[in-house]
Amino acid sequence: MELRNRHLLLGITGGVAAYKAAELARELQRRGATVQVVMTEAATRFIGTATFQALTGQPVFTDQWDPRIANSMAHIELSRRADAILIAPASADFLAKLAHGLADDLLSTLCLARSRPLLVAPAMNREMWAQAPTRRNIAQLREDGVRVLGPASGEQACGETGEGRMLEPEDIAEDIVAHFVPQRLAGVSALITAGPTFEPIDPVRGITNLSSGKMGFAIARACRQAGAQVTLVAGPTALPTPRGVHRVDVRTARQMHQAVLDQLDAPGARPGLFVAVAAVADWRVANASSSKLKKTPDGAPPVLQFAQNPDILAEVAARPAAPYCVGFAAESEDLERNGQDKRARKGVPLLVANIGHETFGQDDNELLLIDAEGLQRLPRASKQALAAQLVAEIAQRLAATGAAARAQAPTP
Ligand code: CTP
Q: What are the pocket residues of ligand 1 if the criterion is a CB atom closer than 6 Å to any ligand atom?
């Protein structure tokens, strides 16, 4: 319910993608928003007002002179009530109107009369999207502070393939959620490990653990929503990639280790934050077989030998100019002492302990934050809600270390 108490005005303009606006209205409501629909006359040729009236439980407005709103001020009334205005789909024509400040129907007039943020999800044929006037209008809208969501590339209703498709309703809803999140990690590049690792025994068998990856993926999503650039190094899991997150899939602990080092040493923005959420196997099978192990006539079981895997978190934390490192721990007893010990052993400023034995695969969790200042409990909540709280805590500590480092740096 990340959009609880949010009131959104969903403007629908004339384009075949208007049929997807029904799904979008549902998606926004599913996340807790109330949705008020306003349609252009052209939009009503693609999909009926009754659909949205039924879906949102609110009257749908199309007409500037709608007698249901007293004093003929529908444009002011409607735009003041909304926390944000979202136009989806936004046709080329409607974007042109917005860019030029035209106000010749209810939707364009309320956009011009707005005092709240405006987001648009363009949808049009690829040639229309590529044309100079559309390029100019989009540039103008961005300059005017309008958020442009998408468009996506792919197959179009006209049969052509290219850029101009409206984003999928779920992606638009994700962007709307992120729009309301304070940008505490803006400008930060974050690296996150998540999920289990899989250590092969032979080509068809291996050793893994019960980590679902849910907490790490939730943290990646929350970091992205808070404005970070996020790379997620994921062990084997079927979870979908959070929107806007760069995902690197790995299988073994050693692959995870290498992927993390590659990211740290890659040219470009060096990660300023490393959150190790993965349940990394401590050992791998040193004598893994390259062919499938067979039963032997004497019934003797295979003998596995183990070798220790690299400790990714400890190694990253020990690097010169290390990013701000956050570790996770699943301790079952004496959380505080074991947590502080592990924090020291790993050399990290913040260790997050899962409280309770069985959090693997569950949708909620309870966390204990352990740092130099002591302990802080984040009470039981969904992993997504906890991830958002944790990211706010991390951002605060990250800002404080940045400030401390700046204070220590010699003045030029
Ligand atoms: N971790 C890591 N690389 C490893 C093992 C652990 O990066 N090879 C990270 C985990 O992602 C987690 C933290 O270290 O953030 C603690 O993991 P945990 O398994 O609790 O720690 P261990 O070092 O395995 O300690 P223990 O002796 O309690 O098993």
A: 193, 253, 276, 278, 280, 282, 309, 311-313, 327-330, 346
